[in-house]
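User: I'm putting together notes for a lab meeting next week and I want to include a structural view of one of the chains we've been expressing. I don't have a solved structure, so I'd like a prediction I can at least talk through. The sequence is below, exactly as it appears in our construct file.
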Amino acid sequence: MARKFGFTLSYPIPVSELHAALTGEEMWRDRFTGAPTATLDLSHPGGPGTARIQMSETVRQDKIPGIVRKVLKSELVVTRIDNWQALDGSTAAGTFEGTSSAIPSEMKGTYELRPTAEGSEVVISGSVKVKVPLVGGAIEPLAEQLQRGVAESERKYIVKWFEDRAEV
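Assistant: Thanks for the context. Below is the predicted structure for the 168-residue chain, given as structure tokens.
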């Protein structure tokens, strides 16, 4: 059975500007510069204002929880695909899906980008399922924490990226 999760990330950035960064190439290229074990493939299959961002990264052994290391038979490579639709008024929808190479797992969900009085927010709703006998249920909360951690790290990066650009 899949474990459901949801959380919201706030940004001090207007929706139109945040959406342009999320669907554009510059922010993502900057984000992945200097990440030796990560790959990025960005395309715009739905036309302008849309994006498909495929990211993968080899996870360092010291970053993998002990319970997960016990079931790994090879290197752990995590892949995530984000799809963003064009702005529809002041909102935009997106989806994400994630998999890993060494553990049969599936993560999927939705994004909703919407305005707030302070800027914007992204509402993230999803589920994670780890298909490993006996320990899959124990690994699912760790996978959820990883998703939250990655999303929060990206939020911090994007906010700083905008701040740095404003100073130039």
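A couple of points you could mention at the meeting. The CA atoms of residues 15 and 115 lie 6 Å apart. The chain has a mean pLDDT of 89.

User: Perfect, that's what I needed.
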